[in-house]
Amino acid sequence: xxxxxxxxxxxxxxxxxxxxxxxxxxxxxxxxxxxxxxxxxxxxxxxxxxxxxxxxxxxxxxxxxxxxxxxxxxxxxxxxxxxxxxxxxxxxxxxxxxxxxxxxxxxxxxxxxxxxxxxxxxxxxxxxxxxxxxxxxxxxxxxxxxxxxxxxxxxxxxxxxxxxxxxxxxxxxxxxxxxxxxxxxxxxxxxxxxxxxxxxx
Length: 201
Ligand SMILES: N[C@@H](CCC(=O)N[C@@H](CS)C(=O)NCC(=O)O)C(=O)O
What we know:
This protein is an alpha+beta fold.
C-alpha cells in the first residue's frame, strides 16, 4: 500500500502521523503550510476540498478527516492490535471514545483556542472563550474520574482512541495541571516511541 500524508506539525495531521508510526508503516510526508496559504492552491484543493490537513493518499485514493483516516487505518491493519476486533467486547467502548474525542472534547477546546490564540485579537470574543473553557474543564473533570486507575482508555491496551483523545489533551498542558489522572495518562502517551518520533520544533 502506497501512503502519502499531507500534513503540518502541530495540526490534526499529527493524529494520522502518530498512528502511522504506531502501525510501523512506510509513508511519504508532504508538508502543506496552511498558515502560508498552501491550502488554498488549486492543486491542493483537489486533494482536500477545504484546503485543510490532514489528507491521506492511499494508492491514489484520497481520504480526509483525521478521525475517519485513523479509524480506517486501524481496521485495515488490524493485526497491529490498535482497534479491538468487531466481535471483541471492547469494540463498543473503543467506538465510543473514537467519536467522543472529536465530537465532545474537541469543540470546546478548539473554540477556546480560536478565541484566545488563532483569531486576530479584534475578532476574539471573550464570552465565547470563557464559555468554551468552562465546557472543556467540565469535560476534563469527567474524563479525569473515568481515567483514574487506568493506563489507557481501554485499560491496559493502548488503542487508536488514545491518539484521538491524547492529541487534544496536549493542546493546553496548563489546564491539565489540576487533573492528576489526566496528567498520568498524558505522561504514558508522551513516552510512546511513535509519539516521540513525530515531535519536532
Ligand atoms: N475535522 C477535520 C478538521 C481539519 C482541520 O481543521 N485542520 C486544520 C489544521 S488542525 C486546518 O487545516 N486548517 C486550515 C483551514 O481551515 O483553512 C479533521 O479532523 O481532519
